[in-house]
Amino acid sequence: MSRQDINLVDNLLNRCRRVISVTFCLLAFPLGAGAQAPAPQVPILVYHRFAAAANDSMTVRVSTFEAQVRFLKERGYRFVPLRDVVNWLIDPAAKLPPRSVVLTVDDGHRSVYEQLLPIAQREHLPVTLFVYPSAISNASYALTWTQLRTLNRTGLFDVQSHTYWHPNFNNERRHRTPADFQSFVGTQLDLSRQRIETEVGTKVDLLAWPFGICDDELMALAAQHRYVAAFSLEARSVDRRARRLALPRLLIVDSYGVAGLAALLGEPAPRRNANSAGN
Q1: pLDDT in tens, 74-96
Q2: Distant-in-sequence, close-in-space partners of 132: CB < 8 Å, separation ≥ 6
Q3: Residue 4 contacts by C-beta under 8 Å, 6 or more apart in sequence?
Q4: Domain assignment of residue 201, yes or no
Q5: Helix or strand or coil: residue 192?
């Protein structure tokens, strides 16, 4: 990952922290009794890696994740497949359970198989994986195609596109002609879909933008290449007014613990003894 990419991730984390601070203030000074009820919203959480210890900014401790799942269930949240939310956005007649929440995991790290799979099976958690095929069965940190097929067969894991090799589209645009850039993006979108569908057998029409980078041109290209929804990284929940090719997701890092997650969701902070993972 380049220094520019690291700065992008740092900026995303800082935006999330600002949202948490603002949310704490809103909880301390709630709206008056005459205020209009907010429109239905669905938080889509995005994780990257899981381990016993958080040795980098994108790794969430297993203990933290389990505490967050426990907190969400105690507060009455229902874990629903991402596909159900996409259908809800497309079809005005579609319904979702109250207090729906979605789990997504980016990049296809092997910890999904080693750490997340047992938890997902025990807790019956539907998860959407956004993977970039160039790493699968190649990079030492990544899942294999065999593992992805196993995950998909559980009925809990849906495998979708994170482009073919996770480029920074801002960087690519700077050194390519407009026509070459559009061709490059199309190749990234098409090759990813083709490889995942061939290897896993799932229908691929959902996309997570690498680094959350998207704009009008990229969204138009995603639509041309038959993606029905795409996801960025913004610290807010999804509602029916959101643009379907730039849907926000809440980036979760270990330092948030349960209290930070509660703040992102606009929930009262848990009691201290309910937050055994710290923070």
Answers
A1: 999 999 999 999 999 999 999 99
A2: 107, 108, 161, 162, 163, 164, 165, 166, 192, 210
A3: 168, 171
A4: yes
A5: helix
CA angle 56, 230, 153 (to 5 degrees): 75
Q: How far apart are CA 188 and CA 196, in angstroms?
A: 12
* CATH code for position 124: 3.20.20.370
- With respect to residue 259, please indicate whether it lies within any of the assigned structural domains: yes
pLDDT tens sequence across 169-218: 999 999 999 999 999 999 999 999 999 999 999 999 999 999 999 999 99
Residues 6 or more apart whose CB falls under 8 angstroms from that of 139 comprise: none
Domain count for the chain: 1
Q: Which amino acid is at 122?
A: R
Instruction: Give the residue numbers spanning the domain of 46.
Output: 42-270
Rounded distance between C-alpha atoms, residue 151 and residue 165, angstroms:
21
pTM of structure: 0.85
Asked if the structure places residue 197 within a domain, the reply is yes
Under 8 Å between Cβ of 67 and 275: yes
